């Protein structure tokens, strides 16, 4: 099997490689070595040429040459006339059965593992706890008494929470019973469980283009073959979905109706109904991801599943993390009863069950969900107003559409690619997610875009825009850089 990486894949895997101390070439060499140690670069993998990688990383060719030379001197890289540079087989010899570790994917979350105090990461959204959440947690301790004597796991979720979630959906126009609910460790695990159930190597999956890189990574790890369909101002293009279903017979259709990540588009009622009818008619299951929220539209419709005819297989995923607090890892999925049973078996294999203390807290938070959601929305709307004001002041040539909801802007860069800009931004201590990573399309159609999450506090918004503007001026005026530009903080 060819384990070589394209330059775009390698740049994505390197992540925030240029942050930290020491010579730039040394940091690049260390980051490449780390990819080998974790299995993302296997023995024999071919590396891009020094010139190609230097262009992609926006550094001088000398920097890449020095990093490659260092790794050659350490026996990590081999170079041969006519075959380029490869990872040496002596670093981690290939096993006789051909097995090799799989370190691919998860570009979005690398900085969660490799944290750097000097780096401002915009790869993930910040959701600090709302006022009052701490008190809810304290009061929830009073509800633990009976559970402490049980000594059980509740693999499908705490019964009281499943009842509360069923009521939550019913109140929003989607009649639901507790046996349709499986509580998960955040929406991320819910999507992972659905991917495990429906997907295998080569499974065609219809997805929105662009889409959320974190979930695309989960499906890609299962071997999914993506069929990207563009969006318009009402959501995923329904004619494109019909063609994709007819031509590819997908195993799954993955959409984010309220609200789409990264564009913030809210899918129209008509589009939800059309997708539900399509699922019922063709038998294609739909995974509806409703976990992305923040600023909320005053006329937000019921979930897509509420518009699906009887017999349509729609699995809806939601979470409390984006409303109450990112540290509360409580999510859930709502599915037809027989699918909920199958997914709960996957949940047991993953972790037996979620923490009951978190679920007790979630019961209380769900009882106050509407007020909490309005509070989060009001705060983020004011923050979004401030962020847009700063961008119009310091980066007047940038373009974006005010989102229908969510917690980020989908920025369009004039006359530049987001991959190149992201590399320059790293030298200013800012980690961005280029639009190409938010897309399953093999083209570079979204390279002009990047997702800009709304920082939670005013000082953070000022700092982010200041670094963005410095990086933009450098990209506009200069070529590659040999060393990070010193920050004046």
UniProtKB/TrEMBL annotation:
From the UniProt annotation, give the residues forming the signal peptide: none
Which SMART domains does the record cross-reference, listed alphabetically? Answer: HTH_GNTR (SM00345)
Give the Gene3D superfamilies listed for this entry.
Type I PLP-dependent aspartate aminotransferase-like (Major domain), Winged helix-like DNA-binding domain superfamily/Winged helix DNA-binding domain
Q: Which domain of life is it from?
A: Bacteria
Looking at the record, the residues that make up the HTH gntR-type domain are 22-90
Q: Which UniProt keywords apply?
A: Aminotransferase, DNA-binding, Pyridoxal phosphate, Transcription, Transcription regulation, Transferase
- Supply the Pfam families for this chain: Aminotran_1_2 (PF00155), GntR (PF00392)
List, in alphabetical order, the Gene Ontology terms for molecular function in this entry. Answer: DNA binding; DNA-binding transcription factor activity; pyridoxal phosphate binding; transaminase activity
Family the entry assigns: In the C-terminal section; belongs to the class-I pyridoxal-phosphate-dependent aminotransferase family.
Mind telling me what this protein is named? DNA-binding transcriptional regulator, MocR family, contains an aminotransferase domain
Native source organism of the sequence: Nocardiopsis flavescens
